[in-house]
Structure formats: C-alpha cells, structure tokens
C-alpha cells in the first residue's frame, strides 16, 4: 500500500504522527469502451463549447450555476482562501458511544499507520479507544475537502472512517407504508422462528462475488481461444418459480420447511426430533404386529375348539 496523506492526530495536547492508507479496494473488472464495428478504443476529448478547442486539464477551473442561472467561476486560489481544518492535522472533537453512530453515515475507510520511531502515543490512543468502547469524532481534510470522521480501532490498528453530514442523508417517507396493516401475532412468531433458523455468526470469508468469478472465467475462456469475442454459451435453464403465495402465513411456513424447520402453532421443531419420533414409531410397529398375531391365533384357536365340541357330543351319543 502507498500512503496518500501524512499528518498527526491532535489528542488534547498529545500529537500522534500518522500515515493514511486507503483501507478498501474495488475488485470489479474494468472495461474500456470500444467501437462495436471495429473494436477501436473510444477516447474522450475536453472540448470548449465556446471556441471549440481541446482544453488541457491544468487549464480547467470550476464553475457553479445557481438555479436562477447565475454562473460563478472559482480558481484554485479561491478555494485555498476558504476556512478548513488544518490540512495535516486530525483534531479529535469528542468521544461518543459507538452504537450512537448510524451505519448509514459511514462513507470511506482509511488505515492509520504510526509515522514515528517511537509509536508510544499511537499505541496508547488505540488501547484507550478499545478499553472505553467509544468512537472518536474527528475532522479530516483530504483533497481540499473537510469531512467529519469516526476514529476507532480495527484489528489493533487505528481506522478512520469518513462520515456523511446529516443533511446528506435523505429523509424518507413512503406513502405506501402509512396505511399498511400491522402484522398478526402468528405472522410475527413464525417470522421470528424463520430468523432463528437462519441465524449464524458473521464470517465474511464464507461469501464470494460469484458474478466476478464467472466473469473472469468467461474472459479467460475467450483469451484461451485466441479470440477477441466471446464464444456463445448456452443459457442456463431458469428454475421454475411457484405462483405467488398470497397468504403470508403459508409463505412463512414454506420458508420454514425449506430452511429445515417446522412451525406448529407459531413454534418450531427441529428435524432431528422428528427422526427420533419416527424411530420410536418403527420400534412400536413390530410390537403391534406381534399383538395382532397373538389376537389372530387366539381367535383361530377358539374357532377350532368350537368345531371340536360338536364332534365330541356326537361320539358320546353313539356310545350311549
């Protein structure tokens, strides 16, 4: 990694020299735009709409146009005069409970490396943040833009996460939710059971970007074939989807069955006990069959005895 910023954290009267590194990276495969007819690369030229000439990036200024149509052009010198936090200092504003920062505010993440031969102050700040379980709110100026940021510890390293300003989060008010009916107790109970059956510890390594993996396979196949175009591949068969289930309870029940659990009266029974019940039933079955055989043999014996009785009486009469 390459440091993109150098400065220090101002922690009261304590200065913690640090280097800043981008903590995340995009693994998406990049594509160039080409002419579909001949594969020629598409290039973009900065052309002035007034004189029609190409303009170098160094000769470009920034302009603002108001809703009323008034235009204002600002140069780099104008931006340099604007008030901003110290460009090479990250002042700590306050420490707040970590759970009070809504995750929707998080923007970009940066690792902070100690930039000192004796990183004692760095280690002290990191250890303190871990012990108090709080997040430091700081100001962070990068590329002429001052941001509010959260400073916390990640795997023993100080992590800086820029935050959106409150007015950058859009307010939401969907009319479709205003007259929505409340879920029934049975639906809530079954939904909680479904959540429980799908609950597990979060391990990021278990999840992969299947789209990028398959895309890489397609590109590697095209390169191996020595062609600049893709070989036509058969479309995978679409799985047949059942008709929409109108009854929410029925949909929850089917979800529970698919997840390996059953709900009875809002409760859940694991499949394992069901197997035990089946085995008990199987164990009782031979006993039932034995009992049935005994009953059958008794009835047969009675019939035989009943037949023999008239024969004995007939012999007694003859003897008489």
Task: Walk me through this protein's architecture.
There is one protein chain. The chain is of the alpha+beta class. Helix content is 33%, strand content 24%. The chain has six helices and eleven strands. Helix 3 packs parallel to helix 5. The longest helix has 49 residues. The termini are far apart. About 17% of the residues have low confidence.
Question: Topology, please?
Answer:
Blueprint: E1 5-11, E2 14-22, E3 62-65, E4 71-74, H1 76-80, E5 89-97, E6 106-114, H2 120-132, E7 134-142, E8 145-154, E9 157-163, H3 185-197, H4 210-224, H5 248-258, E10 261-264, E11 267-270, H6 271-319
Parallel strand pairs: 1-5
Antiparallel strand pairs: 1-2, 2-6, 3-4, 5-7, 6-9, 7-8, 8-9, 10-11
Helix pairs in contact: 3-5
Short overview:
This protein is α+β, with helices and mostly antiparallel strands. The protein contains six helices and eleven strands.
Low-pLDDT stretches are: 262-316
What's the main sheet like?
7 strands, mixed, barrel
* First-last Cα distance: 123 Å
- Number of helical elements: 6
Count of β-strands: 11
Shape: extended
Main structural class: alpha+beta
Q: What's the average pLDDT? A: 78
Beta fraction of the residues?
15-25%
Strand order of the largest sheet: 1-2-6-9-8-7-5
User: What is the helix/strand order?
Assistant: EEEEHEEHEEEHHHEEH
Radius of gyration: 38 Å
Portion in helices: 25-40%
Task: Give the tags.
7-stranded mixed beta barrel; two-stranded antiparallel ribbon; alpha+beta; 320 residues
């Amino acid at each position: 990694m390459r440091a993109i910023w150098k400065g220090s954290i101002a922690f009261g009267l304590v200065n913690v020299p640090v280097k800043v590194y981008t903590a995340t990276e995009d693994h998406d495969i990049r594509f160039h735009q080409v002419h579909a007819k001949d594969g020629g690369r598409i290039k973009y030229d900065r052309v002035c709409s007034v004189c029609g000439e190409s303009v170098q990036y160094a000769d470009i200024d920034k302009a603002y146009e108001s809703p009323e149509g008034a235009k204002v052009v600002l140069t780099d010198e104008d931006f340099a005069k604007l008030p901003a936090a110290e460009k090479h200092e990250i002042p700590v504003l306050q420490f707040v409970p970590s759970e009070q920062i809504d995750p929707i505010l998080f923007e970009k993440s940066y690792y902070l490396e100690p930039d000192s031969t004796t990183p004692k102050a760095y280690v002290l700040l990191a250890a303190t943040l871990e012990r108090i379980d709080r997040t430091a709110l700081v100001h962070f100026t990068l590329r002429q833009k001052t941001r509010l940021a959260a400073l916390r510890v990640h795997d023993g390293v100080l992590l800086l996460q820029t935050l959106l300003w409150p007015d950058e989060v859009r307010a939401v008010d969907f009319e479709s939710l205003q007259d929505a009916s409340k879920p029934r107790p049975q639906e809530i109970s079954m939904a909680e059971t479904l959540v429980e059956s799908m609950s597990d510890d979060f391990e990021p390594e278990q999840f992969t970007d299947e789209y990028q993996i398959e895309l890489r396979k397609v590109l590697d196949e095209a390169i191996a074939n020595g062609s600049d175009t893709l070989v036509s591949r058969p479309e995978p068969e679409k799985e047949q989807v059942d008709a929409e289930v109108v009854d929410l309870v029925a949909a929850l029940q089917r979800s529970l069955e698919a997840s390996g659990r059953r709900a009875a009266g809002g409760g859940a029974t694991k499949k394992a006990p069901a197997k035990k019940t089946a085995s008990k039933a199987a164990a009782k079955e031979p006993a039932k069959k034995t009992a049935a055989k005994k009953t059958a043999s008794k009835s047969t014996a009675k019939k035989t005895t009943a037949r023999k009785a008239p024969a004995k009486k007939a012999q007694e009469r003859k003897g008489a």
